[in-house]
Amino acid sequence: MGLLDGQVAIITGGASGQGAAEARLFVAEGARVVIGDVQDGPGERLAAELGAAARFVHLDVSSEEDWTRAVQLTAETFGDATILIQSAAIVHHRLIEDSTPEEFERVLAVNLLGAFRGMLAVLPGMRRAGGGVIVNIGSAASANGAGGRALYGAAKWGLRGLTRSAAVEFGYHNVRVNSIHPGAIDTPMLRRSDQQLPPPKIPIPRFGRPEEVAEAALFLASARGAYLTGVDLAVDGGATAGNWVVPRETFTSSAADR
Prior knowledge:
Blueprint lengths: L7 E5 L4 H12 L3 E6 L2 H11 L3 E5 L5 H14 L5 E4 L14 H11 L1 H17 L2 E6 L12 H21 L4 E8 L27 H12 L10 E4 L23
Parallel strand pairs: 1-2, 1-4, 2-3, 4-5, 5-6, 6-7
Helix pairs in contact: 1-7, 3-5, 4-6
């Protein structure tokens, strides 16, 4: 038996990267999954790969009409969604003074307002189903300020606050709401074919894998996380835990010396 037997999940940004890893894992654990994304080709191919337990729907999370269609398709195909994983996002790497209000509005429309629309869209069905789980995929950028990522970080900071408030309000409906905050995950969004990135200087000195974020989402979405709501889970290799001020080699004492 799988951890998600009998569950119906909508996964946004599900055509590639972390979302695709979540779709594969959730199907393997018994869920029926609707993959929502603006990347039609990759999304359709992934749904075909996963078979009868998966469907693809074109979903721009900033569009209310797309959300209505996605929720309707889910209900007609598998039943009301009991899980929503919100992985869809866009990045923006530019200094504040080089950015425009229009760019900020677009980042907010996808990364923050899109998640708000998603929660509103699935809540009625989760009520009918007797409860559900929402997992919003934030970012380690919501833990600290970051030069060149202010617009993206601001949206993810907002998503953290929205998640906690929704957890308070939706608990009455037996709906748990949590967030995951990935660090540097090796996905197409991070890595480009012409770019070789050095290993990050963090406690776990490597890039994370999409499957590791998916495992965290599975834990929060399954009965194993049944008493968790309003949680911010960092999946970042310790990037936001703190920083070494001096090289480790500076410390010469050991347990044997004390």
